[in-house]
Amino acid sequence: MRTIDSINIDESLVETCISRFKHLRLLNLRYSKLETLSSSIGTLKHLRYLNLCGNRKIKKLPNSICNLQNLETLILLQCEDLEELPRDIRKMVSLRHFVIATKQMRLPANGIECMSSLRYLSFYKCPRLECFNEGIQRLTALRHLSFLFCESLISLPQEWLPDLSSLRTLQILFCPKLSSLPEGMDRLTALRELHIVGCPELRRDYEREVAKIGARWSNSVLRIRCSWEIVLSEKDVPCA
Description:
Blueprint: E1 3-5, H1 11-20, E2 26-28, E3 49-51, E4 73-75, E5 97-100, E6 120-124, E7 144-148, E8 169-173, E9 193-197, H2 200-216, E10 223-227
């Protein structure tokens, strides 16, 4: 067996599946109400896709998950009790699609920025996250970057954007304390979609700036959506 796609699977059955099916490629455990994930997950050397969406009681991931060096997709959407990312997260060098939830105020240094294969990176409901380490500008293959419901996020590093030469979509949704955007957004020549929703602190200084960006790129297919005050509910954000 190479695929397990199940909703509401219990922890003992997950352990059984891991021990029996060593050649799994896809493991979808969304909405399974897991409280822990077995450290034996790290033995699934062939795993490409792992979805833990909706497991709201998971507090910690085993560091052995970082042994999954062939893993391309890791989805932690709605894992709202997850306290921190594994310390060796940088070893997951094949990740292309990463949806993050964490209670950390700051991400581990030399972590995500070492994932040079990333194409899609989303921070979803990281309530304590205030700022980021430098280095994410090294993710030159990144095409999608989003920040959703990061209520404590204050700033983004100024050095990020100009080097993200492949970035096509930038979403900043419901980050009410975010008061500034990185400089150099007009140098994102591959950008096609810019969404800023529910970020009232940005409105005063950036409403005109965003309009200028749209005018500057009027010959491209850039799509801009800015609704500074609108309220979006969690049900509008799909679970992958």
